[in-house]
Amino acid sequence: MRHIRNLRRPPAALRAAEPEPDIYDDGRLRVEHENYYAACSGRPIQLPRKEFLILSRLARNIERVVPAEEIWRYAWGRRAPFNPESLHVHIYRLRRRLAPFGLRIETMINVGYRLLSDGEGEG
Q1: Phi/psi at 52 (nearest 5 deg)?
Q2: Burial of 94 (0-12, 13-18, 19+ CB in 10 A)
Q3: Predicted TM-score of the model (pTM)
Q4: How many Å apart are CA 102 and CA 45, to the nearest integer?
Q5: Is 21 within 8 Å of 32 (Cβ atoms)?
Q6: Helix residue ranges per DSSP H, the chain
Q7: Which residues fall within 8 angstroms of residue 73, CB to CB, at 6 or more apart?
């Protein structure tokens, strides 16, 4: 009897070499960076692109302060001059969208921001 090899799936040795998907998931907050997808407690969070990019950068550094200029470069690119007022407005909007899920963004004045979890929230 001949063994037929499943050609749709690479052998285990090759699968191990494949890069892991770029996802943050702590069991409650899930951010799929490449897919522009965010969810909390299994419920999708609808975010405009800039707000998603801000969340993505903060989730990559969960509970650590991320410099404001780093967030700006990640969301707006290197060509756009840093505008702290515009960033603050986007952070304000993002805070309002995340609050029902028990997530908050803390400001470190003249430094940056960090993403914190307050517990289970309403979501």
Answers
A1: -65, -45
A2: buried
A3: 0.78
A4: 13
A5: yes
A6: 12-17, 49-60, 68-76, 84-98
A7: 82
Q: How far apart are CA 67 and CA 70, in angstroms?
A: 5
Two tokens at 49? 């692109």
Which pLDDT does position 16 carry in this prediction?
52
Residue 121 falls in which region: left (phi positive, over 0), alpha (psi -120 to 50) or beta: left
Other C-beta atoms closer than 10 Å to the C-beta of 53 total: 18
- Write the single-letter amino acid at 86: S
pLDDT tens readout for residues 90-116: 999 999 999 999 999 999 999 999 999
Sign of the C-alpha dihedral computed for residues 92, 94, 98 and 103 taken in this order: negative
**What dihedral angle (degrees, nearest 10) is formed by the CA atoms of 90, 92, 96, 98?**
70
Q: Are 38 and 47 in contact (CB under 8 A)?
A: yes
